[in-house]
Amino acid sequence: MVKVKTPKIWLPWEESLAQKGFSAIAGIDEAGCGPLAGPVVAAAVILPPAYQLAGLEDSKKLTAAKREALFAQLTAEVSYSVGQATAAEIDRLNIRQADYLAMQRAVETLQPKPDFLLIDAWVLAFWNENQMGIIAGDAYVRSIAAASIIAKVTRDRIMLELDQKYPQYGFAQHKGYPTAAHYSALEQYGYSPVHRLSFLKKTHYQTTAE
After folding, report:
1. Which of 72, 83, 104, 174 is the most buried (most CB within 10 A)?
2. Do residues 147 and 75 touch, judged by C-beta distance below 8 A?
3. Sign of the CA dihedral 103, 141, 150, 77?
4. Which H or E element spans position 115?
5. SS3 string of 144-204?
6. Phi, psi (rounded to 5 degrees) for 113
7. β partners of residue 45
8. Nearest to 126 by CA among 153, 99, 152
9. pLDDT tens-digit profile of 108-159?
10. How far apart are CA 65 and CA 68, in angstroms?
11. CA distance 136 to 37
12. 123 φ/ψ angles, rounded to the nearest 5 degrees
């Protein structure tokens, strides 16, 4: 028996909004809410009309190699911007507010200026114009899925850079997420300047030098 892969079904939000006269519809998503270290990164993406990209999918459902390939194509073909909030900002604001800040920075640097936002799950208080939060939007809306890929690859690359600066933590492998190896490194070396202290429940970790 030959198995036929079911085609991906996208919700037609971009097409429907374009028919209503909106011309710069941006999908928004983030990466990095859960790690113990590093920034949270958001991306804002405007797809060209009737844009199609084979293999486009929620970044969480893709391999690292596939994300990199789609990232290269997306960043060559679409309008996009990224924003981030640092570990220090996460500690100062809390992760949700820092997430919103990263999204705000991405939206405010996007060209052309969007006239409608489609956001994965959230509604953004800083945006006083048209927007819609869509639960699991990265699985159902093209522009949000594209934003999820750009945000994820951008953040992974940042963590690879931080791995060069702080190689003892293994950021290249776990990207700052809470793994056994990461906790073991914290026990041995203490926390670094890029760790989120508000995420570290064990208070005996000590700081390390820059």
Report:
1. 83
2. no
3. negative
4. none
5. HHHHHHHHHHHHHHHHHHHHHHCHHHCHHHHCCCCCHHHHHHHHHHCECCCECHHHCCCCC
6. -65, 130
7. 27, 80
8. 99
9. 999 999 999 999 998 999 999 999 999 999 999 999 999 999 999 999 999 9
10. 5
11. 25
12. -115, 140
Token pair for residue 110?
């996007």
Assign 3-class secondary structure to 56-91.
Answer: CCCHHHCCHHHHHHHHHHHHHHCEEEEEEECHHHHH
One-letter identity of residue 191: Y
**DSSP code string of 21-64:** T---EEEEEEE-SS-SBS-EEEEEEEPPTT---TT---GGGS-H
- The two three-digit tokens of residue 102, written as one number: 């990263």
Write down the pTM of the prediction. 0.93
User: Comparing C-alpha atoms, which of 129, 126, 121, 162 is closest to residue 33?
Assistant: 121
